[in-house]
Amino acid sequence: MQIGFVHKKCGDFEYLVSPLFERKGVKHCFTTRLGGVSEEEHLSSMNLGTSRGDREENVIKNVNIVCRALSFTEENLCRTNQVHENKVAVLSEPVEVSMGCDALVTDKTGIPLLSTSADCVPVLLYDKKNKVCASIHSGWKGTVKKICREAVLAMGENYGSEPSDIIAAIGPSIGKCCFQVKKDVVDAFSGSFRELSFISEEGDGIHYKADLWEAVKLTLIDAGLKEENISLAGECTVCNNHMYFSSRAQKGKFGSLAAIIEL
Q: CA-to-CA distance for 4 and 221, rounded, in angstroms?
């Protein structure tokens, strides 16, 4: 697995790209909370969430900043309407909001796919052979339900993608350093994963630390991806709350980051 993304800036707007994706010429980004126009402290300043209490005109301006900086086709932008499940929407044409799903897949050019997060794991997929892409929101519940595997399956069933041709980028999210959980979460993972090497005991008999990055990586490998075709930002949104929105660090009052990809 390749670790470390590149930070770039366009004016005050700062974003990340995966070197693995850049080498393939894939138009994509993972946003930070920097360089937007949102004014409230918990939303400052690049909030891209439509349900965070921000003014609609601010979100629209922020989307415009991102799309203009990276030449995304703003009028065709498609969003997930996330429900922490494993449903994948396969798009043949632009849909402003795809209801009740946590992943978007398409083989059409000019349709940017956007998923939001603020500690949950954002994942982008790209089939370099068949030219198919996906944007995924993988919270811990979605990770348990293996949303990334469902997206890989959707790419194969609808467009003939072979997992060995797919590259993946795992963006900034809560790291194992900060994702403390209790037995109920451990039990949920144990019902879905064969082994739990990504979960460790804290030593008090109550708390555990879970590594969602590793869980997502294992899911992708189990779905058939090659480990060398997976890249990881390796940046914790909680530890770096000055750079990223974080539900935990901001105690439930936060803005939304975005992971965007376009063919």
A: 19
Asked if residue 183 belongs to a domain, the reply is no
Its pTM surpasses 0.90: yes
pLDDT band at 97 (very low <50, low <70, confident <90, very high): confident
Give domain status of residue 216, yes or no.
Answer: no
Query: Which of the 8 DSSP states describes residue 5?
Result: P
**pLDDT value of residue 99:** 82
CATH code of 246's domain: 3.60.140.10
- What's the average model confidence in pLDDT over 79-105? 93
Q: Could you give the 3-state DSSP secondary structure of residue 229?
A: helix
Q: Is the dihedral of CA 30, 32, 37, 40 positive or negative?
A: positive
pLDDT, tens digit (0-9, with 9 covering 90-100), for 40-58:
999 999 999 999 999 999 9
Residue 186 belongs to some domain of the structure: no
Q: By residue range, what is the domain housing residue 128?
A: 2-175+225-262
Q: Of 263, 262, 256, give the one whose Cα is nearest residue 31.
A: 256
Cross-strand pairs, 90: 105
Is residue 113 within 8 A of residue 261, CB to CB? The reply is yes
Give every CB contact of residue 181 below 8 A, 6+ residues apart in sequence. Answer: 140, 199, 207, 208, 209, 210
Q: Which of 1-5, 93-97, 104-108, 249-253 bottoms out in mean pLDDT, i.e. has the lowest? A: 93-97
The amino acid that residue 168 corresponds to is A
The residue among 117, 140, 141, 104 whose CA lies nearest residue 213 is: 140
CB 245 within 8 A of CB 258: no
Do 259 and 117 form a contact (C-beta atoms < 8 A)?
A: yes
